[in-house]
Amino acid sequence: MTIPVADLADPPKPPMFGERQRFMLLLIAPAVVALIFFQIVPILTGANASFRDWSLHDPKYTWVGLKHYWYVLSDPGFVWTVMPNTLVFMAVSVAVSLVFGLGLALILNRQFAGRAVLQTILLLPLMVAPVVAAIMIRWMFNDQFGIVNVVFEALGLPQQPWLAQRWTAFGVILVADIWLWTPWFALLLLAGLQSLPKEPFEAAAIDGASRWRVFRYLTLPMLRSVMVVCIVIRGIDAFRTFDIVWTISAGGPARSTELFSIYAYIEAFQAMNFARGSAAAIIGAIIIVVLAMVVFRLLNRWMEVSK
Amino acid sequence: MGLPTHTARRHLLSGLAALGLALALPAAAEAQVELKVGYMKHPIQDASLDMMDKWAKANNVKLTRVAMAYNIFMEKVTATLTSGNDQFDVIWHNDDWGQLWEKWLEPTDDVAGMDTMSKSPLDAFWSADKKMTVVPMAYTVGTFFYRSDLVKPEEVPKTFDQLVSVSQRLQKEGKVKWGYVGGMSFNNTWFAQWWTMWANNCDIFHPLFERDNVKLKAAGFKPAIADPCHRQVIEFWWDAINTHKISPPGMTAYGRNEANALFMAGDAAFTLVDSTHYGDFMDPNKSKIVGKIGMAPFPVGPNAKVPTAWHEIWGWGIPKGSPPEKKKLAKAMLGAMMLDEEGQIEMWKKTGGPPPNNKILAKIAATDPVFKQLQNAVFDQKPVTHSAYYFAEWPAVHKAYSDVTIKALSGKREDIQKTLEEGAPLLTKAATN
Question: How many Cβ atoms are within 10 Å of B17's Cβ, its own excluded?
Answer without folding.
Answer: 10
